[in-house]
Amino acid sequence: MNLDAWLNGRRPAWQRLESIVDQLSRRGPRRTPAQELRELTELYPTVCADLARLRALNVDPAVVGPLNRLVTRAHAQIYRGGPKRSWRLTSFFLVYYPRLFRQTWKFTAASLLLATLSAWMAHSMVQRSPQVVADIMGGADREFYGPKSAADIRERFGHEGNPLLSSFVITNNIRVALTAFALGITFAVGTVYVMIVNGAMLGGIAGAFAKSGIEWQFWMVVLPHGVLELSAVTIAGGAGLLLGYALWCPGRRTRRRALREEAIRAVQLAVGLVPAFAVAGLFEGLVTPSDAIPESLKVILGVAAAAVFWLYLLLAGREARPRIQGPGNAASQA
Fold first, then answer.
1. Are residues 52 and 107 in the same domain?
2. Does pLDDT of 164 surpass 50?
3. Contact between residue 90 and residue 209 where contact means Cβ atoms under 8 Å apart
4. How far apart are CA 94 and CA 127, in angstroms?
5. pLDDT tens-digit readout, 224-251
6. Full residue range of the structural domain in which residue 17 is found
7. Does 68 map to a domain?
8. Alpha carbon distance 314, 321 (integer Å)
9. What is the DSSP letter of 158?
10. Could you tell me if 147 and 286 lie in one domain?
11. Is 334 within a domain?
12. Does residue 152 share a domain with residue 43?
């Protein structure tokens, strides 16, 4: 089979399906002509079959990816009235979201790399030249200068646990994550800046305590809420990088179309982090400052919560056993 000729012959059908799906998304089924609705139901299975054939032939992902997204959108329009909203929400968190994370893990890895490198550099530099780190971070002299003690840690994190503080922390963490995500629209320049600044702040403060020989006490206080919180911020940064990548490298798509398609996935990545931030906020507002819980138990609880979160992202939504790919399930593959 001449693949290029076959692709050229099938693309008009794909373009027609995309046109109908776009109109249906804008107008809704009631304002869409019946003829186009019938055409949608006729084109959908044939395009699913095309997608299955391309996957069987291991065709370039640059060709398969856009077609898979088109089939997914068409599937959503055809079956939009099926499941109840409560089930859609449950399905989103239990099945779709972890699959989406695994599909976009490279952007999360890039976000983690940015934050880790900046944290390491600030950690090393603040012990030799704290004024440089302070200048980069806006002159935060109190954070990076002078000897540190355990009292400084308690002053920063040792407030009394209360629900009001917990709600404030949750809101602030979500704001930081949404900022990292939203600045992806700046071709990811703003996202890169947010991740570097947050990494440098954490590394710089840790380095300041390390210079005084009490870094382990700092981490004992930060880890209970910090592991889960930083994990969520990193994923939000990855969502911003996904937006920026769509603008820098749209492929065969126009930048507007690439941004529209990838923005949906990026928003879903960011919104799906709300439960993680809620748990991290509860830890920071109620567990971290508590004198009734031993420090070692706080760390165990915080690390365990983060471990459950990552196991969920890596394992949830997987199929119980391999299935033969066909038109009927082409749109739902992870």
1. no
2. no
3. no
4. 44
5. 888 998 999 999 999 999 999 999 998 8
6. 3-82
7. yes
8. 16
9. -
10. yes
11. no
12. no
